[in-house]
Amino acid sequence: MEELGVCGWLSREGNFYKCGESKHNLLAAKLEKDLDLKMFDEDKAIYLHDTALLETIGYVKFTQSTYGLIGEYYDNQFMLFFGKRFSYEQRRWMEGNISKMLPRQKSECRERLTLGY
Description:
By secondary structure, the protein is α+β, with helices and mostly antiparallel strands. The chain has helices at residues 24-34, 50-56, 88-97, 103-115; strands at 8-10, 16-18, 40-41, 46-47, 60-62, 69-70, 73-74, 79-80. Strands 2-1-5-8 form a four-stranded antiparallel sheet. It is globular, with a radius of gyration of 15 Å. The N and C termini lie far apart (32 Å).
């Protein structure tokens, strides 16, 4: 039986890096090192690292977290993205992998793709 749900980071180039729930920071640190990612934040006058770095350079964070469960509803996002628009490669990956997502991930992904992120 195929496991449903995606959890990890999706790069601007459409590469998906899988991790376990609550392991996003560890994976972000590994990707920063392995891919030699760097970004200096002029406002804060520091180099960004880990999750802050990936979010700033346009990676999409997919999570399966249920920490936001309030009764039968979730008060959290299953996709975190702080850019203005998904890249073409990210959109292609999401459209091609939406069937692997959990129901709430699918719903959020469809909504964001339809809104033209």
